[in-house]
């Protein structure tokens, strides 16, 4: 499989280094559909603002699934198809969260009685390091999440028109390489930086009609909610 060396080893770093003000013209012709809560940093920690894009849809603000503890692929697919059918932007970036944690097939609360000091829940990476779960079970859960999102990508590719589509990732995941688990900023390790780069195309066969619409108050997510959602994704 063709690969590329990413500019970042976390979403924060990738967003910061990819959307540099030097690329203002390209950004202005880019529609962005995002499940990643790090986009809340645009206009604050990042010089580029969401208003600098052709359009910006932060699906994570209203498509969040509290029971799952994250944002599943389908809300993102819905908004991506809707955006693709109406936009005249030169390009669309569709930022799914999967195969990122949480893993739908791995209920760490049910699979282990281990908790952090003070009773806090441990992440899959904490459990993996402590030996409470095996690398094989964590990897199987990661693969299941990947298959989950690729199923939606397949739906997406038959409901958008695009001469060129690139399937890639902002960063990878470490499962013990160099003593690392998960991902961290500014780490030049292949497991975190080497990502797939697969080119294909898309044809809108009109086989799916999205139903999700952003609510009028979709931006009304306060700082505590943003932190809670980032924490749920393992960003503490």
Give descriptors for this structure.
two-stranded antiparallel ribbon; 32% helix; 236 residues; alpha/beta; 9 strands
Q: In words, what does this structure look like?
A:
Helix content is 32%, strand content 15%. With 236 residues, the chain is of the alpha/beta class. A three-stranded parallel sheet has the order 3-2-4. Strands 1-8 form a two-stranded antiparallel ribbon. It has a two-stranded antiparallel ribbon with strand order 5-9. The longest helix has 23 residues, at 135-157. The chain is globular and about 50 Å long.
Quick structural overview:
32% of the residues lie in helices and 15% in strands. With 236 residues, it is of the alpha/beta class.
Q: How is this fold's topology laid out?
A:
Layout: E1 3-5, H1 11-18, H2 24-28, E2 30-34, E3 55-58, H3 73-86, E4 91-95, H4 108-111, H5 124-130, H6 135-157, E5 162-167, E6 174-175, E7 181-182, H7 190-193, E8 194-196, E9 198-202, H8 223-232
Parallel strand pairs: 2-3, 2-4
Antiparallel strand pairs: 1-8, 5-9, 6-7
Helix pairs in contact: 3-6
């Amino acid at each position: 499989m063709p690969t590329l060396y990413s500019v970042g080893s976390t979403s924060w770093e990738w967003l910061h280094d990819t959307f540099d003000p030097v690329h203002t013209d390209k950004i202005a012709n880019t529609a962005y559909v995002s499940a990643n809560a790090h986009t809340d940093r645009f206009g604050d920690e990042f010089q580029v603002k969401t208003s600098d894009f052709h359009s910006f849809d932060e699906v994570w603000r209203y498509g969040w699934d509290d029971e799952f503890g994250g944002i599943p692929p389908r809300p993102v697919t819905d908004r991506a198809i809707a955006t693709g059918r109406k936009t005249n932007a030169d390009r669309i970036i569709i930022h799914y969260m999967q195969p990122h944690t949480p893993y739908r097939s791995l209920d760490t609360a049910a699979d282990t009685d281990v908790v952090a000091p003070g009773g806090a829940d441990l992440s899959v990476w904490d459990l993996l390091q402590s030996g409470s779960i095996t690398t094989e079970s964590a990897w199987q859960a990661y693969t299941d999440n990947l298959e989950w999102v690729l199923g939606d990508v397949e739906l997406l590719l038959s409901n958008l028109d695009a001469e060129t589509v690139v399937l890639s990732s902002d960063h990878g995941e470490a499962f013990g390489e160099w003593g690392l688990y998960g991902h961290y900023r500014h780490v030049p390790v292949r497991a975190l930086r080497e990502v797939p780069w697969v080119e294909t195309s898309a044809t809108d066969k009109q086989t799916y009609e999205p139903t999700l619409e952003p609510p009028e108050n979709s931006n009304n997510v306060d700082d505590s909610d943003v932190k809670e959602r980032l924490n749920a994704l393992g960003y503490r």
